[in-house]
Here is the input.
Amino acid sequence: MRQAFIIGLDFGTASARGVLMDAESGHQRAVAVHAYRHGVISGSLPNGRKIPRDYVLQDPQDYVEALEVILRKLASGLEVVAIGIGCTACSPLLAYGDGVALLNDFHDEPHAYVKLWKHSAAQRYADAISAQGGEFLDDFGGRVSGEWMLPKALEIKNEAPVLWNKAERFIEAGDWIVWQLTAREARSQDFACFKAQFRPEVGYPSHIVPGLAARLSDPLPVGSPAGTMTEAWCSRTGVIGRPVVAVASIDSHVVLPAVGAIRGGAFVGALGTSAGFLALSDDYRRLPCGLEGAGFGAALPNVWCCEAGQAAFGDMLTWFVEAFPLAPDLAANFSKYNAAAAEMRPQQSGMLALDWFGGNRIPSADTTLSGLLVGLRIGSTGVGIYRSLVESLCFGTRLILELTEDGGVSIDDVILTSGLAHSNTFLVSVMADVLGRKVFVPRIENPTAVGAAIHGAVAGGVAANFFDGNQRFGAKSRNSFEPDLGRHAQYEVLYSQYKNLVANRELVGVMHRLYSASLNV
Amino acid sequence: MRQAFIIGLDFGTASARGVLMDAESGHQRAVAVHAYRHGVISGSLPNGRKIPRDYVLQDPQDYVEALEVILRKLASGLEVVAIGIGCTACSPLLAYGDGVALLNDFHDEPHAYVKLWKHSAAQRYADAISAQGGEFLDDFGGRVSGEWMLPKALEIKNEAPVLWNKAERFIEAGDWIVWQLTAREARSQDFACFKAQFRPEVGYPSHIVPGLAARLSDPLPVGSPAGTMTEAWCSRTGVIGRPVVAVASIDSHVVLPAVGAIRGGAFVGALGTSAGFLALSDDYRRLPCGLEGAGFGAALPNVWCCEAGQAAFGDMLTWFVEAFPLAPDLAANFSKYNAAAAEMRPQQSGMLALDWFGGNRIPSADTTLSGLLVGLRIGSTGVGIYRSLVESLCFGTRLILELTEDGGVSIDDVILTSGLAHSNTFLVSVMADVLGRKVFVPRIENPTAVGAAIHGAVAGGVAANFFDGNQRFGAKSRNSFEPDLGRHAQYEVLYSQYKNLVANRELVGVMHRLYSASLNV
Here is the structure.
């Protein structure tokens, strides 16, 4: 029998990554990364035309180029049976009825580009939608984010009506990539539920943006086959066979089966530049207060998935060590700070930080809030400040975990993944101490791409379901970090003060006024 | 006619400084500095015996050595007509009835040393005295500082009763130095009023520490002759003539006539490691709320003098630039930070600081409070933080100035002096902008020692009074810094937020708990 492979593709913000896995053994055989030709488009379009400061765009043709390069590198001449795709979201674009992007004909028009997830110019439309309210926001804390589908649709409809009228489709980049690969429009419930407030029993909240419903289509559950890769794509890449392509998934969700988070009770933290948290639950009453959104069966079948996050995470630590370096290169810099900070004891520095360097997501959903340091004395040290920043990140995570459990979602498995979970074991050990729980870091390379491959395996019948897919292709083991109960008790004192700062309304008022003052100069 | 000189002596914390001035022309002719042999004694006595952490002592014999060295260097073979002395306070010691320090016989006994002003072990006695209260605290906001005379007396009486019983005198170091020089005990009303709550019409509050009154003596007004320098001292130093020695004065007060602050309406900031402020007033109703103390005719004749201060000032900036250096030596480091910070506009950084790195004196008188930074974002810079720290120092000064005026003391002349006033013109220009007033920096070298020389001149009849002394020996000109009204308006926004932070009681609670937690580890 010929050897068969599966492929997972992870379309991130700056580049795409693919992993080739042996369908039988589950081993990773090859990895390929391709940076987008135009990267993240902000400030001006590729032709030099200026765009507003809060526009963050992408060229969809860059995805197609990455797709081709990666598939050819990984699998030219190999038999591939299934492909799965994870992608940033909400990152929608306008398309014609045949899947061709409007950008092909409108390269001078910013609204024809992919509006990348962090494009923030649609916030005022989001505010208007939230103010209007409605049942469709019940699982989203009553508010819609400016990053999501409905405000981005309203933005285009209002600000580029000509384009809007020409467009027959408004579609997530991940769904659009699947469409390119299979020549079938097959959208994902994961995108639809979390980013467009779709609910299987109700559909889209189509009354919010007149004409939007006609530009969408009903989505399929994750793990469904979207179609097979077209012959054209097979010949273009040298891939043998006609691999089944799964419906796409949000990149932060697609990782779940790769790290073993497939049951209610799992709490997964992806600790990168920012941090994203997913709490899985079998029983669910209402969205825990302060959390951002929840969907049933959308991220994984038959389970509720609640979302939350910290706006700044690794970037805050990187900012500090780069602003006040102890060593010329970043890795050595972090390693010196971590070693010195590990020598200190909790409470010793007398300092406490608020980790709101990128604003606050939980519990306030307010991007204009800011970071804080208190307890500064003559004699405070840079290392003490660094340690306070690390602790504040862990306090922020603990707040999210506590809100989750207080909201009725009980957690029995804390899993940390992504960059910092592997590169900063000092942070992970502080996390265990602050949470007072054992935390796990799965041992796996390229977890997001592997998760996408498992989606492909399920869709293509290589795996019977996500449990089977996890067993065969997911992490085989994990490192565990036990909390030190003495340090946990010391952190209680600091954490209670952290919560006092979070609850300090006058302080929030000061932050607001500082922020708006900074815009006026 | 032979040329005649006057001498001013400034006994500081680490060293003494003397200035020789031409009695006729008023020119400074020579300067001499002598560091104390034992410096500041903390941690252990010179014999190695450990002492508690909050003990800060000095050996009075070091003053005598400095006195001899400086007088010989400045004036051996010259005719000196008057000497004035400024000294740290409250820095008292025990003595026999003939002026000999008890330390001569009790070198192993910490309580026989000078208890330097910043000796803080008597705080609990101060708290007890404040709790008991009394009319004698009316001009001190109802509380006595742990640095002052009464609690330091109680401390010795309770903790070293044998010494206390042997001692016939408890006396400020400045008064003791005058005694050594003249062989006459002639105390100063300046020390007595501000540090021992003496009032001419009432006397000392002798009921607080039984037995203390017998160890004190009634003080004389500043500008009074204490006596003449003894023949023994003249022959020991080579000084010709029998110079009149003035009663001593607090070092921070003695500077006033040197910088031209001799009338009601003057507000003098001595910007050093910490900052001290004196507000002079002709009419006075009650101590402005939050200020620390006031006395009539004590610092200068016929004028009220109100005291206040900022616990951390230059040391906070030095801490920052040394913790996060831009250049290897301190001067270059400051000059780089100042140049870069001057390029920024108010409000631009979005940051705001509280300058409580050494606790807060005004308005809270709470050493356990701490510094704060808010408005931190990814992208904040070290220079932005530095600028926020400079601004916070100016906001702290403005708060003191406003409390002073709100309390009925009107100010028409803001004078800045000491280290930072000369070395950090960026800070002085921010100060003018923040205050929205013209501020003056007198052009004068060794202002404290010159002020002491003016006291000598008045006592010795060289000058008719302090006005005349100021005209002849004080600063001849001053630099002025005009406020920029545009920047002043921008600072209004930040200053109002600064006041919000000052008034934030929950934040103070967080600081208290962080401070006590830091003591527990």
Summary: The two ends of chain A are 70 Å apart (CA to CA).
